Amino acid sequence: MNKYTPNEIEKKWQDYWDEHETFKAENDSDKEKFYALVEFPYPSGQGLHVGHPRPYTALDIVSRMKRMQGLNVLYPMGWDAFGLPTENYAIKNKIHPAIVTKNNIEHFKKQLKSIGFSFDWSREINTTDPEYYKWTQWIFLQLFKHGLAYKKEMPINWCPSCKVGLSNEEVVGGNCERCGEEVVRRVKSQWMLKITEYADRLIEDLDDLDFIDRVVTQQKNWIGKSEGASIFFSLKDHKEKLEVFTTRPDTIYGATYMVISPEHPLIQKYKDEIENYDELNSYKEEVEKKSDFERTELSKEKTGVEIKGLKAINPLTEKEIPIWISDYVLMSYGTGAIMAVPAHDDRDYEFAKKFNLDIVPVIEGSNVSESANTDTSTGKMINSGILDGLEVKKAISTMIDYLVEHNLGEKKINYKLRDWVFSRQRYWGEPIPIVHCEECGYVPLSEEDLPLLLPEVENYEPTDSGESPLSKMTDWVNTTCPKCGKPAKRETDTMPQWAGSSWYFLRYTDPHNNEALASKDALDYWMPVDWYNGGMEHTTLHLLYSRFWHKFLYDIGVVNTKEPYQKRTSHGMILGGNNEKMSKSRGNVVNPDDIVRDYGADTLRCYEMFIGDFEKPVPWSENGVKGCRRFLERVWNLQEIVVDGDKYSEDLLSEIHKSIKKVTNDYENLKSNTAIAQLMSLSNEFSDKGKITKEDFRAFLILLNPVAPHITEELWQVCDLGGVLNEMSWPEYNEELTIDNKIEIPVQFNGKVRFTIEINRDSLQDEVIKIAESNELFEKNVDGKNVVKKIYIPNKILNIVVK
Ligand code: ANZ
Ligand code: ZN
């Protein structure tokens, strides 16, 4: 027997698969399809990380199994290659970002190939390829033509270090998601996409999908649908109404003051009447430096200024109440104004305490100040005029009816979701195919002029004014208006990183199409993606954005499914050995190349699947890697005990059928860890027995193949098992043979379980009683009394009645 030499074997089979296009998916096929998708990587300069292979292996296992089950499987890979790190690297090292990208992709691809994933490489895509981004631009034009892309002066989140505008999603805890720098606000004219128009559908259509619960919850929370009412408060001595949004119209009798956002237009409008305008203005200037996150943090000390010279009237109590400005009310949510109910809202309570404002409880026993009960969702209304005595729920609907009837307000639904800021003032992104003409405004390029290529620039540095580097390219910027032919200027902002990934799964179905983003036939056949696995960090960004684009493409008849992905799962992170996130600075990074070199790709794959529950984060362990290598060594040695025989060994029959059932189900449910444990146990039985038939070994190798594709192919060949493994069919099991013949049943005495016995399934009553009586605990429990009854419920329980 030869030694197990993964480096030789693995290369050999990878070349074989390449040469035979083993994993090529067919577009014109009568077979049932299965589309498995993993998030395509950003080809960074660091190369592959051991975190990448975890999800890739998990769906590789599913893909390999499904192929052997007779399905036409599409399992593609590509590159999400526009983005800041590449641009920053290009700036620093004075290399064109396209070249940096090309080099990084080469490196990534080599690494991925060395791990033996069954990707269909003939469908590789790259978002920075003009043949690809032509269609990203095409989709943008459709959005524009349908009124879903518009330009707006927006206070945006600005990262002073990256010199780039960030979407809310890219601001984490008030800091830039990429570099960690504190984000400030800045007003810029930005391209926006109207994702809010799809808010309801993005929530409702989740019901028909097979997404894991935490993804569904996070998406719903992010969209943040809240139902309530708009209420109009009058300004004293004016016709003006101040509109607020509240989810609790029932608490209106407790509204003792109002708070408006420091940016609220009311202040400008009544500038002349307001006595302390300067004070308000300087407060506003302070506030503008803060992010929304900081402003609304619960624990923060409350600040604010009362507006002198303006008062509001509570429409129900008809009392005159003060109006304040405070940073905790955001201009970007609801109407930018609230009625403050300090007795039942934490922020209002702290604010009222600090500034000595009236606090009037309106729900019995659920005052914020009485910390014993702060649940305001139930209880009886008090101090509340027409609502007195009503339950909260009833009070809400009663108040809404009252407000509507008296023209004081209306039912209202609000969303936390904001429109998507779609411009970046950077070079390395898709150019936005729009021209600005003094006469015609924003004019789309004609579709024949796509792709609009990124021009070559000398310098990729963003300008200090925050304009894109493209703005310095006057030759490129100055153009003619596609509509009237007069001089016009090109848009110099580029698209954000999320653009290319918002539709890439469509391109995989037909990646070389020049006429359309993909052919109708290809889309009809392959969509939706049957199973998409990706990181939880992409739940509110990529996953939501791509669902939005897909729904739009559905509306305009480009795709035939409402949703892009039928099923969504997510993996836990692989941490460093010290349980911390792997990072260069912590010095705990493991390079997959080293593991492949020292132990082999099959060991890496096996270890990443055996390491723990797929959904949970888990620390890396070199010992665990060694354990998996030892397992594969034992598998390698099994070739010594294989003898001729085209049937399963009689005494392994049950164990093999059980393994087929368990492994098949486990793979299907992302439980490869327990599947591998089952195969370890089966291989032990094989070696204990000392002799197995070829058929025994065939079943075992096929089951292990999705996890360890190289060693299993090699053993198949070495043992002369016929053909090549990947062309075999997945083994079937016989349910009857998987059922354990031995079962345990409890024995009760006067209704209490005293011990259990092991019996053969379907034994006769007499045999069962005999076994029970022979147990030493039987006489002890009879305890000298008379046995008056013995009741046996087959395969379930034996009841003994003593008196
Ligand atoms: C009165 C009230 C009484 C409120 C009470 C809450 C509890 P969600 O669920 O997040 O939609 N609010 C409205 N607009 C706001 C803004 N621009 N900035 C800050 N807060 C704002 O929350 C809705 C509630 O948040 C609204 O209902 C309003 O306070 C506040 F016992 O009105 B409520
Ligand atoms: Zn024009």
Automatic annotation (TrEMBL):
Domain Leucyl-tRNA synthetase editing: 220-403
Subcellular localization(s) per the UniProt record: Cytoplasm
Reactions the enzyme catalyzes: tRNA(Leu) + L-leucine + ATP = L-leucyl-tRNA(Leu) + AMP + diphosphate
PROSITE patterns: AA_TRNA_LIGASE_I
GO molecular function list: leucine-tRNA ligase activity
Enzyme class: ligase
Domain of life: Bacteria
Chief site of localization: cytoplasm
Domain Aminoacyl-tRNA synthetase class Ia: 416-607
Pfam families in the record: Anticodon_1 (PF08264), tRNA-synt_1 (PF00133), tRNA-synt_1_2 (PF13603)
Domain Methionyl/Valyl/Leucyl/Isoleucyl-tRNA synthetase anticodon-binding: 652-764
UniProtKB keywords: Aminoacyl-tRNA synthetase, ATP-binding, Cytoplasm, Ligase, Nucleotide-binding, Protein biosynthesis
Keyword Aminoacyl-tRNA synthetase: yes
Binding site for ATP: K584
NCBIfam families: leuS_bact
Entry similarity comment: Belongs to the class-I aminoacyl-tRNA synthetase family.
Cited HAMAP family: Leu_tRNA_synth_B
This protein's name: Leucine--tRNA ligase
Organism whose genome encodes this protein: Peptoniphilus ovalis
Gene from which this protein is expressed: leuS
